[in-house]
Amino acid sequence: MTTPHPALRLSDRIAELLADPADAPTAWTSRPQWRQSLAHGAPGIALLHIERAATGRGPWEPVRAWLSVAADAPVTSGGDSYLYYGAPALAHALACAAQARPGSYQRALAHLDQAVAADAVRRCDEALARIDRADLPALAEFDAIRGLAGVGAVLLCRAPGGETIRRVLGYLVRLTEDVKHNGEVLPGWWTPDGPSGKPDERFPNGHANTGVAHGIAGPLALLSLALQHGVEVDGQREAIRTVLAWLARWRDGHAWPYWIAPAHLTGPDRRPLAPQRPSWCYGTAGIARAQQLAALALDDPRLRHDAENALATALVDPKALAATTDLSACHGYAGLAHIAHRAAADASPRNAARLHSAADLLLDTTHPPRSDPDEQARRLLSSAGPAFLEGAAGTALALLAAATGTAPATRWDACLLTS
Description:
By secondary structure, the chain is an all-alpha fold. It has 19 helices and 4 strands.
């Protein structure tokens, strides 16, 4: 049996401090989106306790308590809902709980499944109409956080044999088709806005985003995961290859730029990238994992090795790691350790060893030797809050599998499109 890494003590202590919703400060709970936000509120904290209960590391009472908080209000659906908020967020959390306890939450899940599917159909219809008009998409149309790639992750878990996930995949296939805009040929995911999803004077002619959270790596991951699960639509393999070719075009060593602006398309030879953190949301960790998933789906050993090598190299690059400044699941050391651990399970033996070694080093950074887990957990909660994406709950959850050397017991990280 593998000896757990000491970082597990930090994960345990965070969970203990987040066991009772009644202890949550009003500075957290008074936020309008608290109850239904997977990124910032109760569903994300519930995920931590669900995974702990499923692995036998914690009781089920915190699960019930946090899910009750999340459900203690009308659930948002329709245009204001997405993977990280409202019906899809709660559906993801409940589905993980039901995975650990088969038969539980079935009535609530049936209701949420209908709401998520109806919204996905509406969004697909709107997106396809936009494509037919030859307009450019908003990031929130297709990305993992707010868009159809994220909603598709819920559908792939809940109804992989249904028609709705096929409609989402069909839309994503069309998203990868080139468009002609103002006389220039652009990738179909080129957005007229900046990386924030809003008009930005720094990006007067828009950009193409490469990341998992808000860019084309999110759709790439979903298309690849669906193919691995036997869910395929016309053009899906070609769409995956189109995205892979685009990413290969812009790769610089073992890194990718966060986005491509018009100047990159017509300017002189590109300069090497400045050091960038190899995050899940933007950067090598998320993109390389998406590429590895694509390689597994296409049964392409050379592409798989290339992705694994890029990830393993980035995770020990001192300059890249120096740009990483927190512990979060989204863009910190815990999230990187989780991705390294996930990728190692699918890697060739040589690359698996490199990735496991990188994960161990990342865990050491997350919880240095002789650190006090209680002091560290309290400091993290004070500075970063309890959030899943950027706070303590996500840090604790991302540490679990890597620190124990096991696979997650639930598909909690499907919301990251890493599995």
